[in-house]
Amino acid sequence: MTEKILDIQNLKTSFFSDGKEIKAVDGVSFTIHKGETVGVVGESGSGKSVTSLSVMRLLQDTPGKIVGGSIYFNGKNLLEIPEREMRKIRGNEIAMIFQEPMTSLNPVYKIGKQLEEAIRLHLGYDKKQARAHAVQMLKLVGLPRAEELVNEYPFQLSGGMRQRVMIAMAMSCKPKLLIADEPTTALDVTIQAQILDLMRKLGQASDTSIMLITHDLGVVAEMCERVVVMYAGKVVEETDVQTLFSEPKHPYTQGLLKSIPKLGEKVGKLDSIPGNVPTPDEMPQGCKFATRCKFVTEQCWKKEPQLEKISKDHKVRCWLHQDTEKVEEMHKVGV
């Protein structure tokens, strides 16, 4: 296995409001290796985006706070370095693409100026060199008229073009890690495919690791080598992408996969996971998925299972995988 670029261990991030602590990320651990694309999936509210913001240390001006754990990037704990040093890493060695580019691009500055700012700051280029590099990056992400686009404002571009600008901005300093938070959600299907293909090619060309946050398992199948499934702020399953689709072990993962429509298969109604993610003040004492699980047992309500390794590259947080009869029952009704 190649070297670890990102190593998150027992990360805990909470939000504090009216004297109450809301645990958004509760003991999350996973690693990303050099050149690897890892998908982080789960419903809204599962803690995916908060995990990425914790890695970038972008929670300072919010009620959110990292209360425990470690985030090692290239062997250095990001939680122990001063903000001044973190600013040198953020946007340079670790870059991020957000879900909606219009909220990330400054509407009153031209595209070229926004690209050049990061290039000059991190690469030390002068104004002329930065402009040339900005134009080159816009061409690299497949944008036409790059020399003209640098003089245009974000509102003059389509959604797909703005997302390409965000990718150009993120990749302009050749980061070691790219965090993409739902990068294709606001785009139509054909543009989605182009953006994903672009991210893959750029990642391979520069050997950049990618942390891809999404709720779309089709995107995961297309892009990722490994998958981390999150639910209620915890990792409930982690394995390689082939195993996840062929042998999902956690009932939550099975539910996600069964809710995907299959080409050529006629069904009256798609399967869905009953209920909703419990609110922080209604979390069950044991397994957090117990309120929605069709295989729930007495033990599930009493004690929370740990994330256990059940094979070489497969981890699952579920009591049922230790029960042979229950596992067989799950396989009968599984995906």
What does this structure look like?
- The chain has a domain at 103-172.
- It has 13 helices and twelve strands.
- It has helices at residues 48-56, 83-89, 101-104, 111-123, 127-140, 146-149, 159-171, 189-206, 217-223, 241-246, 251-258, 298-302, 324-333, and strands at residues 4-17, 20-33, 37-41, 64-73, 76-77, 94-97, 177-181, 209-214, 226-231, 234-240, 308-311, 314-316.
Helical residue percent band: 25-40%
Tally of separate helices: 13
Strand order of the largest sheet: 6-7-8-3-9-10-12-11
Which strand-content bin applies to the residues? 15-25%
Keywords:
13 helices; 4-stranded antiparallel β-sheet; 8-stranded mixed β-sheet; globular; alpha/beta; 335 residues
Task: Please provide a brief summary of the model.
This protein has 335 residues and is of the alpha/beta class. It has a domain at 103-172.
Per-chain topology:
Elements: E1 4-17, E2 20-33, E3 37-41, H1 48-56, E4 64-73, E5 76-77, H2 83-89, E6 94-97, H3 101-104, H4 111-123, H5 127-140, H6 146-149, H7 159-171, E7 177-181, H8 189-206, E8 209-214, H9 217-223, E9 226-231, E10 234-240, H10 241-246, H11 251-258, H12 298-302, E11 308-311, E12 314-316, H13 324-333
Parallel strand pairs: 3-8, 3-9, 6-7, 7-8
Antiparallel strand pairs: 1-2, 1-4, 4-5, 9-10, 10-12, 11-12
Helix pairs in contact: 4-5, 5-7, 7-8
